[in-house]
Amino acid sequence: MIARAFLPQARTASLVDATTGAVIAPLEKVRDEGLFAGAFTGRSAWFPYRFRIGTELGEMDVDDPYRFGAVLSELDAHLLVEGNHKKLYDKLGAHLTTIDGVAGTTFAVWAPHAGRVAVIGDFNGWDGRCHGMRLRHECGVWEIFIPGVDPGSFYKYEIKSQAGERLTDKSDPVAFYSERTPGTASIVTNLEHHVWGDQDWMAARQTFVPRERPISIYQIHLGSWRRKPEEGHRWLNYHELADELVGYIKDLGFTHIQMLPIAEYEDEASLGFRPLAPYAPTSRWGRPEQLRLIIDRCHQAGIGVLIDWVANKFADDARGLANFDGTTLYEHPNPHQRFLPGTPGVLCWDYGRREVANYLVANALFWLDKYHIDGIRVPEVETMLYLDYNRARGDWTPNRFGGHENLDAIDFLRRLNEEVYATFPGIFTIADENSAWQRISHPTFVGGMGFGFRWNTAWVRDTLRYLARNPVHRKYYHDELVRGPASAFQENYILPLSHGEVAFGRNSLLSKMPGDRWQKFATLRTYYTLMYAHPGKKMLFMGDEFAQDREWNSDISLDWHLLGDGMHQGVQRLIRDLNALYRSIPALHEQDCESDGFAWIDDNDSDQSVISFLRQDKDGKSVAVFVCNFTPVIRPHYRLGVPTGGFYRERLNTDAETYGGANVGNAGGVEARAEPYHGRPYSLELKLPPFAAVILERAPADTQT
């Protein structure tokens, strides 16, 4: 038999028995580059062996990667070809393991059209000659086990096309940790390093019914939430965020946080919306186990964690997925569908290729599985659904029926939702979809897209347009205020005051409000209360909870010094109280997505710019009355019809002094009179403060006085 090995660092080499350490045969250096070979006899069956090499540093034994068996099982290969490997992340990528008593790392990468693939890294001098990978022809995956590769090792793939052209060295498509930008090397890491302490949360999540529970989301960009001015305004790392963020969110009473994209991305300007390594949390803010620490502490504090999950595009970076094996592997082969008009530097996924669709579905499952994420938001869904999105005539290819719907993307999104809901009960998915597509948040078995919720951007657009008007003119645009409930139950909606409303030249929410400083704050407080009382789950972007008065800038910290001002403190107190009220009154959340939970009292008082409505829970025991006044006029003796008698306690008044108001109100509540009004048998007589909202709750019968 003949033994061959490429050992560029060796001066001499011998073949040795790995069990006994005995030298079997010396090897001759047949090429100056480091190729050794030698014949030996007396062995007729496979046996564990090593190479004993002499180097400048002395003599050492090294294991041969090619004496170890296959990385993928036949079942793995079959599922990958089928496009149905839900846990491909357990096989592809770099995994620390021990084989035949030898510790090392397995590497596996899908590159079916490559002529050659090798692992290069700091463990082999970035020399592609050392660790050429073996091709599994049945599935197009290249694999190898390399002994001695430890956590923290940097690596990439050296790929040659079938024509022999060497491509730009590639980071791992299933890397779990990446070098900090501008570097793009992948890093070997132990995914199981963190010991979770959120068992109670995960057990309770199994029975969580999102539509019926209070969901109040705090959207956050980790890099600009808070910084260290005394250290050059650097951002906080994951560990520091775990120490500071979790307590802050718990104090304000939000039920969930939602992080802007955290998968590794190429540049700060993209905010994460141009992913480079979809399986790796960005290393800007620390290591993967530190991100797990944030999530773990959130769960232990009773706070859910959502992430923005980008599925409509990825970075057009030669070091990443672009032209990965010399062909359009991950990106769409049709130029009309490969690029996203108006968004340079990105490529669109090929949803019709089963391996790519599987890669994306498995990626969503990966974050839910390995990071205990409680839900995902998919941004810009409309760019996925339409073949002609932002494209001129002649710049798009119709589907097989001649239409403009992207049938592959539709099938992908439905499969995505079916898989994540079936695998992880209690999680939920959110679609940011801004077209007129129907049934986005309806189950797939009734023809829907399968998302749990949909952003109600139309409500945000209408209400902000209304509030930006001079109060004297608002009565002429009353429809902008009241049209929301007409469509509020067509989907399971979230009311998203997101980062998009306070960035990109749109100014802050406070700055959108007209009038003097007091009027701006009063109107903003009213708007927040309208959102919390209106049907639909709630979302607020960071900084809005204390009325930051400048537009959000992702390069600097929020203006925390504003909390030294009483007006900003008042808005923060209001958000804290609104969250507490929303969670404690079933009428305000139990039927957020059901028309039975909402009824207008009066939506026609346009002359006074006042609206009022009722919210109630499923059994009608919890009833809340909401009324708001969008003018600077105090309205005494304002009557509202209510369904039942009794005492209605004033649970919240945005004109309270503690919020920055003037304390115009109703002395804690009012008694309903048996005087019919607004078609109801009882009525309340209220004193409405200016630019203010009031929430009243009917007291239970056993507490009536």
Overall mean confidence score, pLDDT: 96
Task: Pick out the low-confidence regions.
Answer: none
Structural class: alpha+beta
**Total individual domains:** 4
Biggest sheet, open or closed, and with what strands and sense? 8 strands, parallel, barrel
Q: What's the overall geometry?
A: elongated
Question: What fraction strand?
Answer: 25-35%
What is the number of helices?
14
- According to DSSP, the number of beta strands is 35
The CATH topology assignment of the largest domain is TIM Barrel
Kindly provide the name of the CATH class of the largest domain: Alpha Beta
Structural features, described:
The protein has 705 residues and is an alpha+beta fold. The chain folds into four domains: 2-63; 67-169, Immunoglobulins (Immunoglobulin-like); 218-264 and 287-317 and 332-548 and 576-584, Glycosidases (TIM Barrel, Alpha-Beta Barrel); 587-703, Immunoglobulin-like (Sandwich). Strand 29 and strand 30 form a beta hairpin. Helix 6 packs parallel to helix 8 and helix 13 (517-533) runs parallel beside helix 14.
